[in-house]
Design a protein that fits this description.
Residues 14-79 form the PiggyBac transposable element-derived protein domain. It comes from Parnassius mnemosyne (clouded apollo). It holds the Pfam family DDE_Tnp_1_7. This is PiggyBac transposable element-derived protein domain-containing protein. By secondary structure, the protein is α+β, with helices and mostly antiparallel strands. It has a domain at 98-187. Helices cover 42% and strands 15% of the residues. It has helices at residues 31-52, 62-85, 95-117, 136-139, 182-187, and strands at residues 12-18, 23-29, 147-154, 162-167. Strands 1-2 form a two-stranded antiparallel ribbon. Strand 3 (147-154) and strand 4 (162-167) form a beta hairpin. The longest helix is centred in the middle third of the chain and has 24 residues, at 62-85. The chain starts with 11 loop residues before the first strand and ends with a helix.
């Protein structure tokens, strides 16, 4: 057994039948076993959730299996917090969508790094085949949203604006003129 929460202490006592004395006797019970017996329902639930969308990890190094298991536990615990924070079931993401959203947000982070490394290259026309909008976690992360010049087109924030400025991370055209700063407004709550 392994836990980040308890170890064997404080040692508890439990009653067990003894063949020698033909009666119940007190034996020591490590705290981690006591906790497991009390909360095994939660452990079963965690195992069930992991089995639903287990990370596909093929490895010969045994300890990587523990790493992937820990990663899945982290994701599932985050999802349980997400559910707790959204009282209205309509706002809750199913576990599968939640996992996909984490992946897409991590991919967005990479996009920032790529963009920054191309800083000195001439701005390229960004191809956006009906580009999906960034998730709120990316939109408001205040990290790596840089203005870039692209072809002229409709602003994705206001109703009638046209602009040739896009956000390098969100890949959305946003006005940035003295009358209207959709670029700023889009990125703050
Ligand atoms: Zn605008
Ligand atoms: Zn942005």
């Amino acid at each position: 057994m392994a836990s980040s929460f308890v170890d064997s202490h404080p040692m508890g006592k439990i009653q067990r039948y003894s063949k020698d004395t033909e009666s119940r006797v007190e034996v020591n019970c490590p705290q981690i076993v006591k906790q497991y017996n009390a909360h095994m329902g939660g452990v079963d639930l965690a195992d069930m959730l992991i089995a639903l969308y287990r990370s596909n990890f093929k490895t010969k190094r045994w300890y990587m299996t523990m790493f992937s298991q820990s990663l899945d536990i982290c994701v599932n615990n985050a999802w349980l917090l997400h559910r707790r924070d959204h009282a209205d079931p309509k706002d809750r993401l199913p576990l599968k969508k939640f996992r996909i959203q984490i992946v897409s947000e991590l991919l967005h982070k990479n996009r920032t790094r790529v963009t920054v490394s191309q800083e000195n290259d001439p701005p390229k026309k960004i191809i956006t085949p009906a580009a999906p909008r960034p998730t709120d976690a990316v939109r408001y992360d205040n990290n790596g949203h840089l203005p870039m010049f692209v072809s002229y087109g409709r602003c994705k924030y206001c109703k009638n604006g046209y602009t040739n400025i896009t956000c390098s991370k969100c890949i959305l055209r946003l006005c940035l003129v003295s009358k209207r700063n959709c670029f700023y407004n889009y990125h703050v709550k």
